[in-house]
């Protein structure tokens, strides 16, 4: 069995990410690949597209095809709970300070949503990719801005954490030096009237150990995201200037992060023949947008999907779309 592939469908709201992701997943499943599609969009519509009820528990749509709509509130609550527990573990020796107060404030900290989604991605990758229980993992993502912040998180965090690890080592070195001068093997201080022992050894320092653990976790997900044989982003746009220009910015950003963009789907391309003047104008604008696509994304695999005369919902409609997307790997 070959390695699992991971595909992120990214694009502006309304361009057809969910629809294309669903059609792609359906095709992969029909080709015999065990496929899991996960909606990470807080405004889920994956269930609507498959015309079925979905939730946080994996649900089988048909043979080889399983879908999940992550429960956003539960995901954020779980993230905060884990974070709180980790903080209490690390700062256990500082129990005299009221840690709950600090942990409570975390709810409103910037970046919590991105962290929580990334946590869930890591969980899914561990559960399904590392255990090799699926061949194709498809993510339907939130609108572009949030998605890019989530995907950048591992790379940015790695830089931060390595700096913090350096700092922590320097602090421990100082503590060690002071303990030596004082002729003691331990280092004790008084906080709020309580004597507490501070670790001086790297191996015993919960903060350094936690940083190391975080570093390893982020390295793992970063290498999964930047492994071009495994993961890539499929950008979806409409033949209109704004989504195309936004897509170009996303493409440049992802390239900087070392994340591969393998396809560009231009969805909802109007193919009309005998038309009125207004529509002729619309078609001329579309032509202009399409040439912008080829100008901004030269060399990229571009797939055009026609504007269908029906809303592509339900398996039967998705089959037609899947056929159009058959060249997308
Ligand atoms: N090729 C297409 N032709 C016609 N309608 C489409 C096409 N692709 C998507 N749609 C419709 O466009 C709307 C937005 O699609 P959706 O997949 O929900 O977008 P997104 O997930 O990017 O917000 C839906 O009503 C969907 O049925
Ligand atoms: Mg959607």
Automatic annotation (TrEMBL):
Q: Which InterPro entries match?
A: ArsA/GET3_ATPase-like, ATPase_ArsA/GET3, P-loop_NTPase
Parts of the chain that traverse the membrane: none
Report the GO molecular function annotations. Answer: ATP binding; ATP hydrolysis activity
Enumerate the spans annotated as ArsA/GET3 Anion-transporting ATPase-like domain: 8-326
Q: Which family does it belong to?
A: Belongs to the arsA ATPase family.
A Pfam family assignment: ArsA_ATPase
- What's the protein here called? ArsA family ATPase
């Amino acid at each position: 069995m070959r390695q699992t592939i991971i595909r992120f469908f990214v694009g502006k709201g309304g361009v057809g990410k969910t629809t294309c992701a669903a059609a792609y997943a359906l095709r992969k499943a029909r080709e015999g690949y065990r496929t899991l599609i996960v909606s990470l969009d807080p405004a889920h519509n994956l269930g609507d597209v498959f015309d079925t009820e979905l939730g946080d528990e994996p649900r089988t749509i048909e043979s080889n095809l399983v879908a999940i709509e992550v429960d956003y509130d539960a995901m954020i609550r779980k993230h905060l709970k884990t974070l709180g527990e980790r903080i209490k573990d690390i700062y256990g020796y500082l129990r005299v300070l009221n840690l709950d107060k600090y942990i409570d404030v975390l709810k409103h900290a910037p970046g919590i949503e991105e962290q929580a989604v990334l946590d869930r991605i890591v969980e899914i990758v561990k559960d399904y990719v590392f255990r090799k229980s699926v061949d194709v993992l498809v993510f339907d993502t939130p609108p572009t801005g949030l998605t890019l912040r989530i995907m950048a998180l591992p790379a940015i965090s790695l830089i931060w954490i390595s700096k913090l690890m350096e700092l922590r080592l320097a602090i421990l070195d100082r503590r060690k030096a002071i303990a030596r001068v004082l002729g003691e093997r331990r280092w004790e201080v008084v906080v709020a009237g309580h004597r507490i022992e501070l670790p001086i050894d790297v191996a015993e320092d919960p903060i350094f150990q936690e940083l190391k653990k975080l570093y390893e976790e982020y390295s793992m997900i970063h290498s999964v995201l930047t492994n071009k044989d495994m993961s890539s982003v499929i950008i979806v746009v409409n033949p209109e200037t704004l989504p195309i220009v936004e897509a170009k910015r996303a493409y440049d950003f992802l390239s900087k992060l070392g994340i591969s963009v393998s396809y560009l789907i231009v969805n909802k391309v109007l193919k009309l023949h005998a038309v009125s003047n207004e529509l002729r104008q619309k078609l001329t604008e579309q032509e202009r947008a399409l040439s912008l696509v080829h100008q901004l994304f030269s060399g990229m695999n571009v797939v055009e999907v026609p504007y269908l005369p029906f809303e592509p919902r339900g398996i039967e409609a998705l089959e037609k779309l899947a056929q159009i997307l058959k060249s997308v790997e």
